[in-house]
Amino acid sequence: MQVPTHTMPAHVMSAHCVVAFPDVVDIGNAPDVRGALRTIIHDHGGRCRALVADLSASRFATATALSVLVEARKLARGEGMALYVVAPAPLTRKVFALTGLREVMPVFRTLDEVPR
Question: What Pfam families does the record tag this protein with (predicted)?
Answer without folding.
Answer: STAS
